[in-house]
## 1
Amino acid sequence: MKKNYKIIISIFSFLFVFYFLIFRNIFTLMEVRENIEQKEIEIEKLRYEKKVNLNTLELKKKSLEEEEEKLENLISKDEKENFSNIASLFTKIFFPKARLIRFPFDIRGKKYIKYGKDFTTGVGCRIEAYNFNNGNLGIKAPQLIIGNNVQINDYVHLSCAESLIIEDNVLIASKVYISDLNHGNYSSLKNLEHSCPNEIVKDRKIFTKPVRISENVWLGENVTVLAGTTIGKNSIIGANAVVSKDVPENCIAVGNPIKIIKKYNFETKEWEKI
């Protein structure tokens, strides 16, 4: 009898443990399922919000396009033609050798600037030549020379205090800056007067070095050409490059600092990597 009692207790103990584990797993599974359902609800909510945002953006885009179309319609074809005619008339009167000078156009130190035939500009261009010699006969007056068939596009800035020469058939993209001067000297050469960082920038001495853009050069968007550099003929300067050293002819150069990546081989008639 005592032995049967122990068997019964063992069976009940086993069943208790077994049911405890099962119910525990069931509750765990229920919690997991509840969490999954909650996550699914959150995902659906995010999907809905994303869809609403996309629809809102589409509506805003459509609204902006409609506004742009309305503004375009406000300017008639006749008005556009009149504006073009005014620019052409302005060019013929003030820049007779040029093909077309577009408004607005800012030119400073015109007596130091020479340009060739068929010169063309985009809007917002600024061309300036400053004489910093202050009556010092030992310093030459600046010369900014633009050759024949040169085209500069929107918001190009040319700044000259000594010599800036752009030869024939040069194409300059928008937002390009070319200058032959610096406010101060920051080179590592010891035989030159160095500028002190405590000195007010606009009061620092102007240092100049000639710049030459040779014939048939193409400068990409946002290029900067620094003082003392020469770009050889037929070369291409990639967008956003900073020309801080000379570039040989028939090359493609990119980057900041500038790096030559290709050169044209006239024998194979191919651009070859360097």
## 2
Amino acid sequence: MAIITISRQIASFGDEVATELSRQLGYSFINRKMLEGDLLKHGITEEKLRKYDEKKPGFWASLARDRDEYFDYLREAVYERAKGGNCVFIGRGGFAILKDVPGCYAVRLVSTDEIRTQRLMKEFSWTEKKAQALMMESDNNRRGFHKCFFNIDHDDPASYHIVLTTDAITPEIGAAIVHEACVRTITAVQEAEGLARIADLLQAQKIVNHIVFDLKISVHFLEATSTPTEIMLHGVADSSAVIEKVLSVARSMAPGKKITSGISIVQDYKSYP
């Protein structure tokens, strides 16, 4: 019941390894189209997907409220897809969203610029100059995406269980290496703990999204931390009445759990629309 996340550079065999790994393990392959479909069902428009999906947002876009909507629904979609285990995620910051989940195995695939350039030229019949330009654009976009949404350096090897260079291996060999490493690393106890943790994270994220985007209650930067017995809400509101309304909604969505508030009151607070 393990969960595997794959972060990759362009032309490093990311999709190929993920597809083959899913086949070898008999796991679901959670790709871009599946997560985009989930976001569209939540009302995220095609325009917002183009603006934020593994891209570095512009300055004003990084402050806009629809950035939070994209990010919060992305987290819900990842938790929803991961709740049953036995899945492989590619991209979309999956390793960062699931980084504190036991039994989640994070993989990074890289390749040298020379090899990546050659692969892009061969696959798309591009000139060397165009391949290098698109490679640099992709690298910058993915770096900016992870910095903006997760405040992390996705090139940091410490963020992963394994970093694999694919210059001299096939996708089949890469998948076999990850398969063996995962089997030898993740225990059944970790897998069970991970599924329980995802259930808590999913419940907390659904509460946040319902309060902010469905009910449109005026609380800013709303986050929820969850344990098996308690959910604590954090954010900024302009009155105690708003806080009580938020707590009431959370109690109705998580019966049996203790609901506590870490929400600050800041009167006349204004956020970027």
## 3
Amino acid sequence: MTHVAARARVPKKALIVFAVVAAIMLGLAAVSVVRGIVHESRRMQVVEVLDGNTVVVDANGEHKTVKMAGVQSSIRNPDGLRGGPNMCLGEKSHGWLRDRLVQGATAEVDLEEGEDGQQYATFHLAGKDVNTSMAEAGMAAPTGTGVDEATATEIDEANELARSTGAGLYDVEESCTYNSMLFEAEYKLDSIPEKTDNTVKALDKRSREVAEAVDEIRLIQEDVEALEKDGGDFEDLAWHPAKEELKQKADEAAEKGLQRLRELNDRRNQITAG
């Protein structure tokens, strides 16, 4: 091979290298553009928060009604005419979500279509997952719908935190929660004086008072026992994860009441036997 031929091949090699580098650079640029488009398509404007489960968003000029992914709150109860666990905190959940997904705000939204054909949305604002925060505040219960396994786990952990701290659906100050109902029933039992006159009439009166309090606890026991993982009602979804804790509290409260009844009955028997 002559020196002239060798020199002639150098430009060809350089052109090949240049072409490869150019192709790589163009590829990276294309990926960046695509990523930019995808990122931009996730940015949606909040139009309206209908309730704690449903949000209307503007996706590139198209209004979409989406459900909160991975969580569910109770339905709204604006007139307060219906109470109990199935209607628990519907209005507060709506207010909580509306305060965070403010009308006109822009959020990053991940959409996924569920088996029911609904669009489920995960909202990201200021680096935070709104859906997970909602579970942590006790404003909604985990569903696992419309989220990946990792996000579902995060929501479950947030729900555990809400239960352990007594937030929202697990707050004894919220009268619609099982936690509150148990607290109030046990408080009623504890408020009945231990001391009573040592007469049959007084002991019978006190026994009736204690029995009424125990019956109230037992009714809650039955409702807690009936909670099912896939029961279909909101109260199943919200409190089944806390079922064992609630059962233990209810069992202890009921046993405390039954022990008082046994003691009152023993005193009565002593009087009648004497």
